[in-house]
Amino acid sequence: MTVDLILRVTVGSPVYSWDSHRVGKIKEIQSEAIKIETGLLQRDYWLPANSIYEAVPDEAVILTVEKGRLDDEKIAEPPTIEEHRAA
Fold first, then answer.
1. Based on the number of CB atoms within 10 Å of its own CB, is 19 exposed (0-12), middle (13-18) or buried (19 or more)?
2. What is the pTM of this model?
3. What domains appear along the chain, each with residue ranges and CATH number?
4. pLDDT tens by residue, 5-53
């Protein structure tokens, strides 16, 4: 299911938490992760694809996570192709 959703994510789309807070926009898409661009005062970060609840191409991405719990979901980097195949 997450693979289908990540294929519908588009760079530049706004990203909203489960509790409807805008948290940034899609900066990059890699294997099974998305990079969120946050703005000037915060660092961009990666989330795993299973954090995506809903995605419509060229429209908003809704996450499965509330804004206050985003730090719990962040990952350092997306998995490499080798790590993905081994999983």
1. exposed
2. 0.85
3. 2-77 (2.30.30.240)
4. 899 999 999 999 999 999 999 999 987 899 999 987 889 999 999 999 9
